């Protein structure tokens, strides 16, 4: 019984360290290329090196951390080829989902979408980067939720970590978030009007902005990309 409790506490500690490091990487608090020290992390979280090492191994499996022999462990650079793969995947899935939303959305789903847009506007007024990024994520998640595809969204999240870091960098670099909000508003409007062809076109254009942004970001922050 005691061994089981110790294993549970150990797993809980590891999961907490993993979640904190993962969020720091995705939020760019730990920018691409940042060296990671097991000793420093264990001191920060007040834990032994074992849960830190296990967390770093898990993050390496996700592609967020890179271990280089004789050099050390680093936050992985943003891989532009993986960004494009993720964008391609999201474009095809989300165009299908937004088309489905035009017939599948009920009143509650649409109210949740409109509430999200109201909160996006508030984040823009407050210049709240973290809030805007989370609401951007939530807007797209609500499309999957409202069409009964929540598990698809969950799986997608594991495959878009490089894209999400690039998207967050875009928000940091350009505070003109009104354009992003307006695209979301138009998509919601097309869903309300049950105009599936227009909704798909809007979504495709919305996600394809990442292509142009990618070139600009790579030029401005070459140290963050491969």
Describe the fold and architecture.
The protein has 226 residues and is mostly helical. The protein has 2 domains: 2-75, Orthogonal Bundle (Arc Repressor Mutant, subunit A); 80-224, GntR ligand-binding domain-like (Four Helix Bundle (Hemerythrin (Met), subunit A)), CATH 1.20.120. Helices cover 77% and strands 4% of the residues. It contains 10 helices and 3 strands; from the N terminus they run αβααββααααααα. The chain has helices at residues 2-26, 38-45, 49-62, 80-104, 107-126, 129-146, 150-159, 161-173, 178-192, 196-220; strands at residues 35-36, 65-68, 72-75. It has a 3-stranded antiparallel beta sheet. A hairpin with a 3-residue loop joins strand 2 (65-68) and strand 3 (72-75). The longest helix is centred in the first third of the chain and has 25 residues, at 2-26. The chain is elongated. The model is unreliable at 1-8 (pLDDT under 50).
Per CATH, what is the topology of the largest domain?
Answer: Four Helix Bundle (Hemerythrin (Met), subunit A)
Q: Tell me about the biggest sheet? A: 3 strands, antiparallel
Radius of gyration: 20 Å
Helix content: over 70%
InterPro entries: GntR_C (IPR011711), TF_FadR/GntR_C (IPR008920), Tscrpt_reg_HTH_GntR (IPR000524), WH-like_DNA-bd_sf (IPR036388), WH_DNA-bd_sf (IPR036390)
Pfam families: FCD (PF07729), GntR (PF00392)
Protein name: GntR family transcriptional regulator
GO molecular function, one term: DNA-binding transcription factor activity
């Amino acid at each position: 019984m005691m061994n089981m409790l110790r294993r549970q506490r150990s797993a809980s500690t590891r999961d907490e360290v993993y979640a904190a490091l993962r969020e720091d990487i995705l939020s760019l608090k730990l920018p691409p290329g940042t060296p990671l020290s097991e000793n420093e992390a264990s001191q920060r979280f007040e834990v032994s090196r074992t849960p830190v090492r296990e967390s770093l191994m898990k993050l390496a499996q996700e592609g967020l951390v890179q271990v280089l022999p004789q050099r050390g462990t680093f936050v992985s650079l943003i891989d532009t080829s993986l960004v494009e793969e993720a964008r391609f995947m999201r474009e095809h899935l989300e165009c299908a989902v937004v088309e489905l939303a035009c017939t599948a959305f009920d009143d509650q789903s649409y109210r949740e979408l409109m509430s999200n847009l109201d909160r996006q506007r508030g984040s823009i007024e407050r210049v709240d980067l973290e809030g805007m990024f989370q609401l951007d994520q939530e807007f797209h998640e609500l499309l999957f939720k409202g069409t009964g595809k929540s598990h698809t969204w969950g799986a997608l999240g594991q495959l878009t970590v490089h894209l999400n870091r690039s998207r967050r960098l875009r928000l940091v670099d350009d505070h003109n978030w009104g354009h992003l909000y307006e695209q979301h508003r138009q998509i919601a409007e097309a869903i309300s009007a049950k105009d599936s062809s227009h909704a798909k076109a809007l979504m495709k254009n919305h996600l394809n902005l990442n292509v142009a942004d990618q070139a600009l970001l790579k030029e401005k922050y070459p140290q963050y990309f491969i």
